[in-house]
Design the sequence.
């Protein structure tokens, strides 16, 4: 890859990485490992505020990654921080949950159409896993149909990396292809009598580096029908999409209500919280077995979630995020075509993903993202980005100045 114009240096980040190499396996791991970004990308973040982040060396960026999704109102939103500060002073992790445990369950049941009850945890993979357990407890069956590549977490049953994973960790799973209704129909027939559920994401998002694929409404409706025919649970994984496709369930727009849904990321604007939401007929099964986590009942993230959801309502957050997403995506498309670049942008405009047709190893997207970063805009070259209510029209105009120059550089260097 050719070097960027004005590429900032990162001596503090480099020094931190060297220290990390002494005490952390592989220095960094998972999605926090910036080695998946462009060479010389900032690895550490030192400060965040609103729509901005600063790396460990003090460079400022308008952030379109939003902490990989959780930040839906911008970092340190004053209303959320005030509510959180107040709660932290009186009660957070305690012998039992606070009143906010009940209030948040009531709120989610109110806002998400298919939900009659809620259970809380911390991470997305806690709740995707819990959904599978509830479906199995309810049906007394084993088999869950899972899309081959969609990311549902990094636990042994779903980690795209199979290192250390036993075949027994994946027992009871059968794999389908997204949007292939005939294929899933056949698979369900093969497992008739043992089908506990089908887990599916509102649109197809593979672990990293693939274009996104919107759901065919007929596929979504077909899954509902297949689950009804087989007495199986339809599980919608809203961990990534929750509150960024709709103020409620993402498949409501197609007339499809799941039996169970898993939520995390954006519910708490960065505070750690996850939820399983379920329909009435699964309530008894969901309450029939022991499940818990040391920090699952802490009050502060629940207050953050209640305030964040109230803000989404008050600000009409979805309309705002779709408007900013439209502004960004239409601007990017115009710019790419003005340079005759083969850019494709997939996914909902609130969670867009950009790639260059025909590139290998993301070479053009990496170079483009590096050029954006050198101009103060943080975009991930191998993962979808996220809109937030903190992004103003002026922010997006500023982003578009940087992206235009970055496209110009990529066109000059590679095309
Ligand atoms: C759709 C989906 N499900 C589950 C997960 C796992 O969530 P977590 O990393 O919080 O365990 C993710 C994380 O990106 C996700 O996008």
Sequence:
């Amino acid at each position: 890859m050719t070097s960027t114009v004005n590429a900032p240096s990162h001596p503090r980040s480099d020094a931190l990485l060297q220290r990390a190499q002494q005490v952390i396996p592989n220095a960094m791991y998972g999605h926090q490992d910036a080695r998946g970004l462009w060479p010389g990308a900032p690895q550490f973040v030192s400060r965040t505020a609103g729509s901005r982040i600063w790396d460990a060396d003090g460079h400022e960026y308008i952030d379109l990654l939003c902490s990989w999704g959780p930040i839906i109102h911008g970092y340190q939103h004053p209303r959320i921080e005030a509510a959180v500060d107040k709660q932290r002073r009186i009660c957070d992790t305690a012998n039992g949950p606070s009143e906010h445990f009940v209030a948040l369950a009531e709120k989610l049941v109110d806002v998400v159409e298919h939900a009659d009850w809620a259970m809380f945890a911390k991470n997305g993979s806690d709740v995707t896993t819990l959904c599978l357990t509830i479906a199995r407890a309810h049906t007394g069956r084993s088999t869950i149909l899972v899309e081959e590549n969609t990311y549902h977490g990094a636990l042994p049953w779903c980690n795209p990396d199979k290192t250390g994973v036993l075949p027994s960790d994946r027992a009871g799973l059968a794999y389908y292809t997204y949007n292939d209704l005939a294929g899933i129909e056949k698979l369900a027939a093969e497992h008739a009598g043992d089908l506990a559920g089908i887990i599916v994401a509102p649109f197809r998002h593979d672990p990293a580096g693939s274009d996104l694929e919107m759901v065919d409404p007929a596929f979504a409706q077909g899954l509902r029908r297949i689950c009804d025919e087989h007495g199986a649970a339809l599980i919608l994984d809203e961990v990534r999409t929750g509150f960024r496709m709709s103020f409620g369930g993402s498949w409501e727009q197609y007339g499809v209500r799941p039996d169970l849904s898993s939520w995390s990321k954006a519910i708490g604007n960065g505070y750690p919280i996850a939820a399983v939401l379920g329909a009435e007929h699964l309530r008894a099964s969901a309450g029939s077995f022991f499940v818990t986590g040391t920090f699952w009942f802490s009050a502060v993230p629940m207050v953050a979630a209640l305030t964040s959801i109230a803000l989404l309502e008050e600000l009409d957050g979805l309309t705002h995020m779709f408007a900013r997403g439209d502004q960004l995506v239409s601007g990017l498309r115009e710019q790419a075509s003005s340079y005759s670049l083969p850019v494709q942008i997939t996914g909902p405009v609130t969670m867009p993903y950009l790639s260059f047709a025909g590139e290998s190893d993301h070479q053009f997207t990496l170079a483009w993202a590096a050029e954006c970063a050198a101009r103060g805009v943080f975009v991930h070259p191998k993962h979808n980005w996220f809109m937030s209510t903190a992004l103003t029209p002026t922010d997006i105009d500023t982003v578009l100045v940087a992206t235009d120059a970055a496209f110009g550089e990529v066109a000059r260097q590679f095309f």
